[in-house]
Design a protein that fits this description.
With 389 residues, the chain is an alpha/beta fold. The chain is built from 13 helices and 14 strands. Helix 2 runs antiparallel to helix 10, helix 3 packs across helix 10 and helix 4 packs parallel to helix 5.
């Protein structure tokens, strides 16, 4: 049994989530007593078995040039089989340099500035950046909110693909910010359109390990035998809080894509971080039991928040994966202003919806991955402030 109430001490170690200097830039004049629920990382300590493995590696004191060994590939293959019940092949794996960075590099290698890339909004802000900064043309397709869950109108999507001459889709699965797990029928429909119009599908699956409901996550790797032009980017970064190590990988069955990406990474001198590579292996080899308990803890925190916010017109979007909760504030017109004033009056720091490209209306995102004491007090202050606004 792991203790998720025993948190890391992060206030003076440069953590963006707890660093007062960074917080003052993001939330001017916020209170000294803070409840940071904005940055998408966790406050939890990793289990002893993983930390001991890290220490053993560090004590070897060998950080020179290296080759990636078979254990790297085996750990990813075994993780997908255990966690996602999905069989992947060694030949599909490309060692990466961070989940989003790897997508950025892949787009820069495979696409060019005449390509029109579609993203579904609202979505993680860097999705826009990786398209714009590669000088491709960004096409935003708004998701529809029905019964507190985002859905894709595939007839309208097909019209948009034709009208905008789409060549690629950048897709977040599970969805960030809402935590939606896409159903098999939705994924089937998406793949059907990709095949019909020969679209390249880039998929971010970084939140896929943390399923908290009954709905099963389906990796796009399950479609590799049906359609080749898919590139998945994933990592243990969200699951094990390794964002600072750039430990990631790409998966694609398209060997032409794979060869071009590997050559592009090599030409750009972009090698995986050796420490991140070793930590990835340790987490995937030793972290399964911890992840299942982490899922239960996040579900408990979700239920806690739901209970506290009951009785208000605050609207929680159905949450199925990850530790990031998407909440609609029906009485708020200016969400950026609200988030700043909330921080100034209560010390509660939430992520404003405007960081999610478009179609964010009056939403905030709440990070559930902290202690129940912090979450309970933060949500009480948040609800009281909102109800009295």
């Amino acid at each position: 049994m792991y203790n998720f109430e025993e948190l890391l001490y992060r206030e003076n170690n440069g953590s963006m989530k707890w660093n007062k200097e960074y917080i003052r830039r993001r939330f001017p004049k916020s209170k000294d007593e803070i409840f940071p629920l904005f940055i998408a990382d966790m406050d939890y300590k990793l289990p002893k078995e993983i930390v001991d493995s890290f220490i053993e590696f560090i004590q070897q004191s060998d950080f020179g040039y290296y080759d990636i060994l078979d254990d790297y590939y085996k750990s990813i293959i075994n993780w997908y089989k255990k966690i996602h019940h999905c069989s992947i092949e060694n030949s599909w794996i490309i060692p990466g340099i961070g989940t989003i960075t790897s997508i950025y590099v892949s787009i820069s290698i495979l696409l060019n500035n005449v390509d029109n890339v579609l993203i579904f909004t609202p979505v993680y802000g860097p999705f826009r950046d990786v398209v714009d900064k590669n000088n491709c043309n960004l096409i935003k397709y708004p998701l529809k909110l029905k019964h507190k869950e985002y859905v894709i109108d595939f007839k309208e999507l097909e019209k948009s693909i034709i009208r905008n001459n789409i060549s690629s889709i950048l897709f977040c699965s599970p969805h960030n910010p809402s935590g939606k797990i896409w159903s098999k029928s939705e994924l089937d429909s998406l793949i059907y359109l990709c095949k019909k119009y020969n679209l390249t599908l880039f998929v971010d699956e970084v939140h896929s390990d943390l399923v908290i409901g009954e709905k099963e996550f389906i990796s796009m790797a399950n479609y590799f035998n049906e359609y080749e032009n898919i590139i998945i980017s994933s990592s243990p970064n969200k699951t094990f809080n390794l964002a600072g190590l750039n430990a990631s990988y790409l998966l694609t069955p398209n060997q032409e894509f794979k060869g071009k990406i590997e050559e592009g990474l090599k030409n750009r001198k972009l090698n995986p971080n050796r420490v991140g590579y070793r930590f990835l292996v340790s987490c995937y080899e030793k972290g399964e039991r911890w992840v299942y308990e982490l899922r239960n803890n996040i579900k408990e925190n979700y239920i806690l928040v739901k209970e506290i916010l009951t009785g208000s017109d605050i609207e929680m979007i159905n949450h199925q994966a990850g530790y990031l909760l998407w909440i609609k504030l029906n009485k708020v017109n200016d969400i950026d202003k609200f988030v700043i004033e909330l921080a100034q009056d209560t010390g509660v720091l939430l992520e404003t919806g405007s960081r999610f490209v478009d179609n964010y209306e009056n939403f905030v995102r709440v990070n559930l991955a902290t202690s129940k004491d912090i979450l309970r007090e933060a949500m009480r202050r948040f609800k009281s402030y909102y109800d009295n606004k």
